[in-house]
From TrEMBL:
Keywords: Signal. SUPFAM superfamilies: TolA/TonB C-terminal domain. It comes from Chryseobacterium oryzae. This is TonB protein C-terminal. Residues 1-19 form the signal peptide.
Length: 291
């Protein structure tokens, strides 16, 4: 009986020491997998968080880390909707928060020497209400400590990437006024080349005929040349929603735009891999006869 008790005590002690060893390893390696390796939780920050958060059962690493709907870039986008981008690129604010087993964020705090920036970061986090997919260990949801370096510079780079991705299917060499179009059109998902181009009912000849029937006669002065660049987007549903014209003569520009608005026909949309896409149409109006 005594031998059995001693063996039980030894087993319990072994389990307890194993748990202590695991905790020790975790505290010595507090890096978060969802951020770059160079960004980690400092020992000073961790000591501070222990005083502010309930860190019971909180993981610092997991088999799968928490996922925000749309990824971390989307999280940054939502966060910076409420955080002042005018702040310095080097704010050095570290935002910590716990993603609970339910996927909700219940604890968050910002750490930096600047109290105002800390408050701004915490206020922004409070307004991001989306539910995360929780972290898991052995397929079981766990509480997870996230660290988010608040970097205005990273957010600006995100925007540059988004802008470039919008234009990756547009041949800039074929669009003379692309920089201007960026300011007046939403070019997200727009292409200028596709497997099949948009089709007007009965073809392009029918489009040209109807278009020039729809515009007023453009009176040209002596030696004046008609030089207007007309742009419009044929949407995925075949309708034209965005129209603009570029040229020196304002009257010609206005009339060129009105000509498109007077056409009610629905196009057959452009397609890539069999799927309809938004298509940027460039239609130059020059001093020549269209047939």
């Amino acid at each position: 009986m005594i031998k059995t008790i001693l063996i039980s005590i030894a087993v319990i002690s072994s389990v307890f020491l194993s748990a202590q060893d695991s905790a020790s390893v975790a505290s010595k390696n507090p890096e978060i997998n969802t951020i770059p390796v160079s960004d980690s939780i400092s020992a000073t920050d961790l000591d501070f968080l222990k005083k502010k958060f309930d860190l019971k059962d909180v993981a610092l690493s997991a088999d799968t880390t928490p996922e925000f709907v749309g990824g971390m870039k989307q999280f940054r986008k939502r966060f910076f909707e409420f955080y002042k981008v005018s702040h310095s690129k080097k704010d050095n604010v570290r935002l910590y928060f716990v993603v609970e087993k339910t996927g909700y964020v219940r604890n968050y705090i910002a750490i930096s020497p600047n109290k105002k920036l800390n408050k701004d970061a915490e206020t922004a986090m409070q307004k991001v209400f989306e539910r995360w997919k929780p972290a898991t260990i052995k397929n079981q949801a766990v509480r997870y400590l996230m660290v988010f370096p608040v970097s205005t510079e990273t957010f600006i780079e995100d925007n540059k990437e988004d802008e470039n991705s919008k234009l990756q299917n547009i041949n800039a060499a074929e669009i003379p006024d692309l920089n201007y179009l960026k300011t007046v059109f939403d070019l997200k998902g727009v292409v200028s080349k596709a497997d099949t181009a948009p089709e007007f009912p009965n073809g392009m000849k029918a489009f040209k005929r109807k278009y020039f029937e729809a515009i007023e006669t453009l009176n040209l002065k002596n030696n004046e040349k008609l030089d207007v660049h007309l742009y419009f987007i044929v949407e995925e549903n075949g309708y034209v929603r965005n129209v603009t014209a570029v040229g020196k003569n304002k009257k010609h520009v206005k009339e060129a735009e009105l000509g498109i608005s007077r056409l009610t026909e629905r196009w057959k949309p452009a397609t890539i891999n069999g799927k309809p896409v938004r298509y940027l149409f460039y239609f130059p109006l020059v001093s020549k006869k269209y047939d």
